Amino acid sequence: MFIDSLINIWEQSGFTALTWESIVMLIIGFTLVYLAIVKKFEPLLLLPIAFGVILANLPLANLMAEPVGSEPGGLLYYLYLGVKKGIYPSLIFLGIGAMTDFGPLIARPSSLFMGAGAQFGIVMAFIVAIALGFTPQEAGSIGIIGGADGPTAIYTTTRLAPHLLAPIAIAAYSYMALIPLIQPPIMRLLTTQKEREIKMEQVREVSKLEKICFPIVVTVFCVWLLPSVAPLIGMLMLGNLFRESGVVERLSNTAQNALINIVTIFLGVTVGATAEGSQFLKLETIKIIFLGLFAFAFSTVGGLLIGKVMCVLSGGKINPLIGSAGVSAVPMAARVSQVEGQKANPANFLLMHAMGPNVAGVIGSAVAAGVLLALFGQ
Amino acid sequence: MSIYESILVALFCMAVVFFVLGILYFLIRIFSLVLGYVSKPQVAAPVAAGESAVEVVSPQDDFSAGTLVLKDTDEQTAAMIMAIISHESGIPLSELCFKSIRLINKESEAKA
Lengths: 378, 112
Description:
The complex is a heterodimer. Chain A has one domain (about 20-60, about 75-375). Helix content of chain A is about 70%, strand content about 0%. Chain A contains 20 helices and no strands. Chain A has helices at about 1-10, 20-35, 45-55, 75-85, 85-100, 105, 110-115, 120-130, 135-145, 150-160, 165-175, 180-190, 195, 210-225, 230-245, 250-275, 275-280, 285-315, 330-345, 350-375. In chain A, helix 5 packs antiparallel against helix 10, helix 7 (about 110-115) packs antiparallel against helix 18 and helix 10 (about 150-160) runs parallel beside helix 20. The longest helix of chain A is centred in the last third of the chain and has 31 residues, at about 285-315. The radius of gyration of chain A is 22 Å and the shape is globular. Chain B is an alpha+beta fold. Chain B is built from three helices and three strands, in the order H-E-E-H-E-H. In chain B, strands 1-2-3 form a three-stranded mixed beta sheet, with no helix packed on it. Chain B is elongated, with a radius of gyration of 24 Å. Classes of the chains: A mainly alpha, B alpha+beta. The interface of A and B includes residues 126 and 249 of A.
């Protein structure tokens, strides 16, 4: 009797359903947890993603199971609807908008061109992905990793190639965490010591009225031109209007604290949970990881090249190092520009100057995503 | 899709990104100029010779914390001091009110 009960419990446990794919994915999940906690690689997102990977690969837990008849689906299945329907990335953009000061961009609008140049990696990765045999929808989703913008990458992928969501999201956030390692060698390779030493003049002060008008103008213009970016640009600019209007402080605080934190938990866990072993462990995933790095590197190159052009056009007043900050990844890419600038010249303070291209990159990657969605969306 | 077509798509995508952000550049320039004419310039309070004044404004509610008088201190050093005090005290910079920052000469202090 007792032995039968033990055998029964054993047969119903997840151990009997363990596959080699689940074991590998659990090891990947534990590694990501380690990287998030010990190495502090984008822990706010990597930790929920890593735990989602672990949860999805525990056999028989069925957390991502769809509802069958009167049987309800798994918990993560319902939470995942927010990703599938494009709700979470847009809400995260609302929070980002509420946290972002577009003042440096308004003070020096030419930063927009560096933000545009830093989308170069998206199109380069797109071409290489097509050459490697991916469909245009898959190639567009892979290329958008080069925008260094997690919510945009997730939003685009759920619309174009939802089956690639897990590797693309994991690659995008992992490389964003590795920006301080990826960008500096490229920055030093493409700029001279003299260019890196350039001290930039303080930008003008931006009036409150300009900051209030900016999100309205950008939303109306961008959504008129590319309606497919309305959820991303619309939410980003709504959050910014909350911040700059100064009359809805409670909404602004909620958007940039409680709301974004709650959505980050849901987004991270459910994106991680899509990394189910049999789907994730494919040659395609390795290709995507490689293409993501390629896209990041070329986006940095694009931003730097436009930075160099602007350095020449401005008569040496613009430090080209701020161009690399055009790869979104707010504010980490701007911090990298600051660190590299100070290494060349300890009296160099590039952080605020780099914030211009940095926030321009957010708009640039959303526009690039809008173009891809318009071309390849259904 | 062939590689040739993918290159065309890539060129089109970059062209649209540059076009949209280029138009935004001109829009920002235009409305900055227009709003520059519309809004009245702020008049700073007069300060004594050898001193400079910096207006401290909260980024959130356009509230002015008054005029900060700097004596024998450059603006960069003052900004650093304010940031350090805010960081160490845990009080947001917008809630702190600085009246003056001046360089203290240790030798003259010792003699006094």
